[in-house]
Design goal:
Blueprint: E1 8-13, H1 20-37, E2 46-51, H2 60-73, H3 81-86
Parallel strand pairs: 1-2
Helix pairs in contact: 1-2
Amino acid sequence: MVRVGGPRFGLIVSKAVGNAVIRHRVARRLRHMCGQVIAELPADADIVIRALPGAATADATELLRQLRGALRKLDIARPSATVAGAG
């Protein structure tokens, strides 16, 4: 397998999250958050994120907190200045 670049992300946003407009909004928000945590992950990481229906109404701060918490729980995120400052 040939790998170029850093970590890879996969997003699963099912119809249970909402209609097409809502699902695409959730996917865009999650993609943006992936960009925020990419520096904290090893280059060979493959991350799959499954959005639950609550993601449609959650604010960005809560989604990012949950994403970072999941990465910490899996013990794959490296500490960074942005995480330490997030408190």
